[in-house]
Amino acid sequence: MKKIILVTLFISYLFISCGSSKTAENKEILVLAAASLTDVLTELANNYKTETGTTVTFSFASSGALQTQIEAGSPADIFFSAAQKQMDALQDKDLIDVDTRKDLLENKVVLISPTNSALNIKSFTDITNSNVTKLGLGEPKSVPVGQYSEEILSNLSILDIAKEKAVYGSDVRNVLSWVETGEVDCGIVYATDAQISKNVNIIAEAPEGTHKKVIYPIAIVKSSVNKEEAQKFIDYISTDKAAEAFKNYGFTVIK
Fold it and tell me: How do strand 102-107 and strand 214-220 relate by DSSP bridges?
């Protein structure tokens, strides 16, 4: 009996040791992040893998869609939102680790048009002009930029007219692509998205006071099985070195 127990313990030890070795060699975390973070996070993750060996896998979409995935139990280690609303909703449902939550970035909202546009659009209020027939907006129920857009248009007293011309995208990159290809006359996106495109013109930044600040919070998902590695990545993208990358893409880093 004693011999059987010792053999069992030895086999268990080998199993645990092999499992631990595999984990150490193949560290991986899953980050659900707002679509507007695609380029900068991809760059930072590539650098992070080179420096640490840890693979960071992303699912980029609208913050609202990602919130829904987490609520449905989809596996994730980190949630990086483009607005407080979605993070607050997950916190209220006890689905994020509150102690790890922090506000990391700030963005701006801008009106853009195709570079070859012949329309005389110079401000947000020019959306009401008769020659503007299609306006690209994020879907306001799940896309933060769509929520900010409606807030801006409402405060400028042109929301009803804008809705008549609106074409709604599933995330901010969807709206950007429509403007780039001329499928819409103009669109409302983040300044960082407009900055990466050579096929759009920035017409104007949203007037001050017309919308809430565009703050990007980040936190570890409570159901994460890789909390230690997740925290290491958050620490990495919170460094001064990472801050330079965020600034290069047009974000303002919150200290």
Answer: antiparallel
